[in-house]
Amino acid sequence: MTSHVTSQMAPIPFIDVASQRARLGARIDAAVSAVLESCRFINGPEVTLLEQQLAEFAGARHALACSSGTDALAMILMSWGIGPGDAVFCPAFTFCATAEVVPWVGATPVFVDVKPDTFNMDAASLDRAVAVAKAQGLVPKVVIPVDLFGQAADYDAILAVSESHGLKVLGDAAQGFGASWRGKRTGSIGHASATSFFPAKPLGCYGDGGAVFTDDDALVPILKSVREHGQGVDKYENVRIGMTGRLDTIQAAVLIEKLAIFEDEIAARERIARRYNALLADVCTVPVVAEGASSTWAQYTIRLAPGRRDPLAEALKKDGIPTAVYYRIPMHRQPIYAQYPSDACPVAEALCHEVISLPMHAYLDEATQDRIVAAVRRALA
Ligand SMILES: *Cc1c(COP(=O)(O)O)cnc(C)c1O
Hints:
Blueprint: H1 2-9, H2 17-38, H3 45-58, E1 62-66, H4 69-80, E2 86-91, H5 97-104, E3 108-112, H6 123-135, E4 139-143, H7 155-165, E5 168-172, E6 180-181, E7 184-185, E8 192-196, E9 210-214, H8 219-227, H9 249-259, H10 262-280, E10 300-303, H11 309-318, H12 346-354, E11 355-358, H13 366-380
Parallel strand pairs: 2-3, 2-4, 4-5, 5-8
Antiparallel strand pairs: 1-9, 6-7, 8-9, 10-11
Residues 68-70, 94-95, 97-98, 146, 172, 174-175, 196, 198, 208, 210 line the site of pyridoxal-5'-phosphate.
């Protein structure tokens, strides 16, 4: 009886890294040990193997492992030579890193609104933002659609607007690696893509990591040079400004093991998300996946009427159920980003007051999910 009470009250993890470790721990420990034995901590053979596997998984010609999702975005902008006077279009509703890399290279982020159903970039707002940028004397160069909360962006509409303005498309698949748009996986859409292997992302390592994807053969040597301090053909010749952008061999070894079960985990996430949708659709606005898109459910995010979100978070916290708000402040209202141009972003602004994310991971069992659902229904009754 005591144990029953305990399980009803025990805190639930928001993202359960430990359950996956229970499944894969021995394999990962062996893979890491092998790297420790080899002492090839930088550019070991596991990095090359992982890159081949990632490219195959995404359906891209090339994958380059790197130090983080943020660095992956930056490496692409650097390799394209984006700089002062250039406009880079970013959603107003995203994690800050999408836009952060733009001032790194001296370019100007320009914010674009999102769609009320999928929370992904709105192509009509992108079109307006291009006009805003031009009116300020900027040269429109790149758009960074984000696969927010795991769902592939509306690439048909974004590619059409991008083509009409000659923009390069850089997919930010940090949350949506493994998702697809009309049968094409993120990483294989647009001119180049970036993803993150931060532990809480759908495919995470045991520290920081990321990858760049592209079908552009000519871009690959430039990306590799940027990743290693702008090295030339000779390692000690520097031909451009670069960075320390490599992925550690140990992290590559961890990712090889995790990638092997990633399809299975994506299927589990899909099943869990559908179950949440079925059990919650009558009490809140549940997430919508657009026709032609799939999601890896980096977050399971519901939407509530204004004023109801924070009381729900408080009530769930009392029941031992963690929640998170992604995001409380739209990018164009952030203290450091408010100086940059933006289209009007009323949808992003409303979402910041109305969204809340519930526990979501591939190992969420039905009993725990039932407990979460019951608590949400009680709080919203
Ligand atoms: C996590 C994230 C990033 C950055 O990835 P890091 O590996 O943490 O640098 C970029 N964009 C989005 C949308 C993200 O969610």
